[in-house]
Design goal:
Layout (H helix, E strand, L loop, with lengths): L24 E2 L7 H13 L3 E3 L7 H11 L7 E6 L6 H15 L4 E6 L7 H13 L3 E7 L3 H11 L5 E5 L7 H10 L2 E5 L10 H10 L3 H11 L3 E2 L6 H7 L9 H8 L17
Parallel strand pairs: 1-2, 2-3, 3-4, 4-5, 5-6, 6-7, 7-8
Keywords: NADP, Oxidoreductase
Pfam families: Aldo_ket_red
Protein name: Aldo/keto reductase
Length: about 280
């Protein structure tokens, strides 16, 4: 795992040799058009070099436009998108990838993820991602919302270990078993909804924010980093995008990291990957 200094200067090396930034901008629920273009440009101007979207967010066109408008060379920006549930299956995954690529206006993608483990389909979808990577159309392939048993299925089928598993991960859902398994197998864990969809009003987080002279959000994002977890907080506000990047120049004590971990309630703000119907 590479050094953690500097908000935008490096990140972990994935199991396929690619480097992915520690911090990215998430654009879930960000409207296509001006809103997402502005958010992406603001993030890139701040120094972010990773943008995370999905076919299901319906804003890939705006994300692509924001990247182009930023003036930063394409090769400096790490772009992730995801396969939507209705497009899963081998052939339909290949077609959906082409649609995403066209909407983003990019020749190749840095990371392509299966968005949810759709029963009966995610194994074939994974085989399609393996094919896309072999063809050189995407540098890294991974999954999102996969539990340990889903990961074991696709690794058993193909021998290809996902580079990334992007899951709901925050102080109220600390995913200890999954984190341990991904570290053992060389899968990089990435947190979505790291800020608990704004539910940061926890006494411990306020106390630590006062102690370190930071915001509760910065405390949580630092906690992610110290566990080796990539994070993609979502915001459409330029000042919040800047604030969310301010967690690289301080360190939480081991005791404080553990205290945050002990907030765990196995509480999901999003759907359960073993019981979803969309």
């Amino acid at each position: 795992m590479s050094e953690m200094n500097g908000p935008f200067s490096g990140g972990p090396t994935l199991n396929d040799g690619a480097t992915m930034p520690w911090l990215g901008l998430g654009v879930w629920q960000t409207k296509d058009g001006e809103e997402v273009i502005h958010a992406v440009k603001s993030a890139i101007e701040t120094g972010y070099r990773s943008i995370d979207t999905a076919a299901g967010y319906k804003n890939e066109e705006g994300v692509g436009q924001g990247i182009r408008d930023s003036g930063v060379p394409r090769e400096e920006i790490f772009v992730t998108t995801k396969l939507w549930n209705g497009d899963q299956g081998y052939e339909s995954t290949l077609q959906a990838f082409e649609v995403s690529r066209r909407k983003l206006g990019l020749d190749s993608l840095d990371l392509y993820l299966i968005h949810w483990p759709v029963p009966g389909k995610y194994r074939d979808s994974w085989k399609a991602l393996v094919h896309l990577q072999k063809e050189g159309l995407v540098k890294s392939i991974g999954v999102s919302n996969f539990q340990i048993h889903h990961l074991k299925d696709i690794i058993e089928d193909t021998g290809v270990v996902p580079a990334v598993d992007q899951v709901e991960f925050h102080p109220l859902l600390t995913q200890r078993e999954l984190l341990k398994y991904t570290k053992e197998t060389g899968i990089q864990l990435e947190a979505w909804s790291p800020l608990m969809q704004g539910n940061l009003d926890l006494p411990l987080l306020k106390e630590l924010a006062a102690k370190y002279g930071r915001t509760p959000a910065q405390i949580v994002l630092r906690w992610d980093l110290q566990q080796g977890v990539i994070t993609i907080p979502k915001s459409v506000h330029a000042e919040r995008i800047v604030e969310n990047a301010g967690f690289f120049d301080f360190t939480l004590s081991d005791d404080d990291v553990k205290a945050i971990e002990e907030l765990n309630e196995d509480n999901r703000f999003g759907p359960d990957p073993d019981n979803f119907n969309f």
